Amino acid sequence: MKSLIIGGSGFVGSYLAEHLHRLGHEVMATRMPHSPADMWIAKDEKAAGYGAVYDLDILDKEAVVALLDQIKPDLVFHLAAQSSVAASWKDPQLTIDVNIKGSTNVLDALRCLKKKPKILLVGSGEEYGKVSKEEVPVKETHAVMPGNIYAATKACQNSIGTIYAQAYGLETVMVRAFNQIAPKQHPMYAASDFCRQAALIEAGRKEAVIRTGNLEARRDFTDVRDTVRAYALLAQMGHAGETYNVGSGSAVSIREVLQIVLDNARVPIQTEVDKEKLRPADTPVMEADITKLQALTGWKPQITLEQTIQEMLEDWRARVRA
Fold this sequence. Notes:
alpha/beta
């Protein structure tokens, strides 16, 4: 089985490559041309599970077509995206270009191939937008009402993927992934940022205060190692044109995540709200109904939030020491 991960050298992609490699797949991946080596990416690509890594800008349609025709994959996992909600507020145009135009370039390139692989399009639980307490956990049939630029682009990607499945017969499977965390995550995300700040404080390199954004928002956190297991299963078993939620099925507040960090810190730490970390709009609660995913695949999360946070904190301690 030959699998191509588009946008595969990043956080989720590196974990997915390792998992697919363990399953016996020949794993290929793409990354942005001339991108600097990120701190969470293994330097030894083959050791990380990659058979080969190619430079690819998904905004260059001709390059996308040429690479797909060269590789001729059996499965395609489309992870390439501008995936930060905070960054989408700061640069809406980039988010729109990458997440909509880039995804359409990939789908159209696949449409042109003689051998059409199955493709998993990764979207976001953010697509659902604000839902009431009575509406959670949210099902895939719930109307999407995106409340930020990133979510709007992912909702559009989902619609386009559905159309390509229905109109062109592409085996396109869509997922709406909820919050993913694990060691090596970029500190632009809250849980990783809390762990980074705690590690710096423990090392005496920062005052004993963790600065936070909105702590009352409730999110559905899943360890990315569990998430990529779901992706692999859906790539094999998912039905074309269908969308599947991927999450833990249980929401916790950002405050609870912070408290796990504080409970595992080696020194006393205070907290303080940083206005710079607050978003223009924030969805109060997001929790996935994962009944559809579980009924099809039997998947369930295996790694607890406490274990993930502890491992993230240890990872940041090692980075700070280095």
